[in-house]
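Support request from a user on the community tier.

User writes: "When I paste my structure tokens into the form, the page sometimes reloads and wipes my input. The last time it worked, I copied everything first. Here is what I submitted, just in case something in the input itself triggers the reload:"
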């Protein structure tokens, strides 16, 4: 049996500034240039002195008419603790006021006079940590996610697609799975958090965690929240984490987190309330899905119309199981 925990892992606040305002911040702080845009018309900087406290600061400085930006990438659990919290999630009953106070202090410390309330919430990661008994269980569940039925207008994004393809990116793809919609307003990632901490941060933990991360960008945030300011939007989102996670998992037909063996799945189908013809189709799907490449391949192999296949996957959910077994 697994346990789960919901909360916000990271959010980003963004504000438009002038070229000279960005230049003043650069001159007053220890920054390093991490990228130069095309034709050297844009420069990207980072201030990392607050990173261990949960805040990474990014600066983009552009010449001409293009805007310049100040971005705060905030890990709220780490910010409130005062040091890096590798697995903790920020929940709706935690200290929002204290978080605002710390962020205001950091802005003042780097020489930014604009008040925190003028920033916009540009990104929020609604997160679920699934705690398993073993690394093998984490791996098993991750592989099941990779077999999810495709969502319209979403595509798989691999590390090797936006990084130089090397052994590191290839290895990272084995331990993660990410899909993103065409408008880039929403992305969903599943990854082995224990592996990521060990490889990227050299941190070893005793828990075996599979992390589900639902990332909303600004256009999506403004659609699902009523508040106009970032603070109110963040409070609303903190109350929606579990709801939004379940809603997205339902679209993937991956709602249920306890995978079961094929033999048990077939027994449950036989004991279900459905008609004999429906049970026969479900048994066929279950057998094909066991060890399959993807549910899309199963549908093609079974020669079932997409609409009918979706309905049959819904039958599995009604039974409290997934169509993919081990």
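"...and here is what came back when it finally went through:"
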């Amino acid at each position: 049996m697994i346990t789960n925990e919901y909360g916000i892992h990271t959010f980003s606040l963004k504000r438009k500034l002038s070229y000279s305002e960005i230049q003043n911040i650069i001159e007053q702080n220890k920054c390093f240039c991490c990228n130069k845009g095309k034709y050297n018309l844009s420069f990207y900087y980072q201030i990392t002195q607050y990173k261990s406290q949960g805040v990474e600061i990014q600066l983009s400085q552009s010449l001409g008419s293009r805007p310049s930006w100040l971005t705060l990438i905030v890990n709220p659990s780490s910010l409130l603790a005062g040091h890096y919290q590798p697995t903790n999630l920020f929940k709706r009953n935690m200290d929002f006021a204290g978080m605002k106070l710390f962020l205001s202090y950091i802005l003042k410390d780097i020489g930014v006079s604009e008040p925190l309330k003028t920033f916009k919430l540009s990104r929020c990661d609604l997160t679920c940590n699934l705690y398993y008994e073993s690394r093998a269980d984490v791996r098993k569940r991750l592989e099941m996610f990779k077999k999810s039925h495709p969502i319209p207008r979403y595509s798989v994004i691999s590390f090797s697609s936006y990084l130089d393809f090397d052994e590191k990116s290839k290895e990272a793809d084995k331990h993660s799975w990410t899909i993103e919609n065409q408008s880039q307003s929403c992305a969903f990632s599943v990854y082995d958090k224990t592996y990521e901490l060990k490889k990227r941060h050299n941190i070893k933990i005793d828990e075996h965690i599979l992390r589900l991360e639902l990332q909303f960008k600004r256009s999506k945030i403004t659609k699902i929240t009523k508040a106009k300011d970032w603070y109110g939007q963040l409070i609303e989102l903190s109350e929606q984490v579990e709801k939004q996670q379940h809603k997205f998992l339902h679209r993937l037909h991956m709602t249920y987190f306890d995978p079961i063996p094929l033999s048990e799945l077939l027994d449950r189908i036989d004991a279900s309330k459905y008609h004999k013809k429906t049970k026969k189709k479900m048994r066929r799907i279950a057998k094909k899905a066991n060890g399959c490449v993807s549910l899309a391949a199963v549908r093609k192999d079974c020669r079932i119309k997409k609409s009918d296949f979706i309905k049959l996957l819904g039958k599995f959910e009604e039974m409290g199981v997934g169509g993919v077994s081990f």
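Agent notes: The reload is a front-end session timeout and is unrelated to the input. The mean pLDDT is 90. The two ends are 15 Å apart (CA to CA). Escalated to web team.
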